[in-house]
Known about the structure:
single chain, alpha+beta, D-Maltodextrin-Binding Protein, domain 2, 8 strands, 31% helix, 24% strand, Solute-binding protein family 3/N-terminal domain-containing protein
Amino acid sequence: MLAQQPLQLSALRLPSRRAYLMFSHGDVDCVLDFPENSVKGKDGDSYLQSPPLSQYPFYFFTLIESGEPLSSIEEAEGLVVGIPRRHEFYLARFAENLKTIELARSEEQLFKMLQLNRIDAILAALPYMEAYRERLRFHSASPITTAANHLICHDTETNLKLLRFVDTTSADQDGDS
């Protein structure tokens, strides 16, 4: 879809923390994120936002050798659960039922904390844990929640053109289904 747009784009695949830092410093124009995390900047500036581009599930992840995967918030009560920083805003409604939450700056840090038994489980979105998937287990039939990715951009004329193109293209694709 984005390859057909009239503007020149360069896509970077970065760890989420680095992507957010680059976005907040103005080094990149847009990030792919869920809007609950990015609707307003620290300085109060509003950002532009695309329509939903994709849905992805959140699961509890545990080490493969730890037994049965967790399939609900109730099963995680009393456990120490790790959550990636910036996701705590979206996950707050679930996290309030958990005994102890440990925030980590990266998925890599969460995985290491799990290996060192500093946490019992990780609550995160599946795409963010993809690099560790073969060493983790999760209950694929029981997502804790789902979220939609949006393109979140700085409020510039160029980015507005990009998001109008994305909006038009996704509306065209919706009509085809």
